[in-house]
Specification:
about 80 residues, three-stranded parallel sheet, globular
Length: about 80
């Protein structure tokens, strides 16, 4: 069995956007919490005053790809989650 692992280089300049749906907040808030925890462990500043990360809340799943595409097209972010 092959085991493939990647490495993650910590970057203080990486700009991240997270798009999350308000619908079914019971689940999506836990997904957001897990995402923020992972980013924090990899050196991304997740504080409220962070200039490294933006969170976009959308009404539901229909809007997720639309807003993700708009954020990606701005060229402001290296990562859209």
């Amino acid at each position: 069995m092959a085991k493939i692992e990647g490495t993650f280089e910590k970057s203080s300049s990486l700009k991240v956007a997270i798009v999350i749906a308000r619908f079914n907040d019971l689940i999506t808030s836990k997904l957001l919490s897990g995402c923020l925890d992972c980013l924090s462990r990899h050196g991304i500043d997740i504080s409220d005053s962070s200039k490294q990360m933006d969170i976009a809340w959308v009404p539901g799943s229909f809007e997720l790809p639309l807003i993700s595409k708009q954020l990606a097209q701005t060229g402001k972010y290296e990562v859209v989650i």
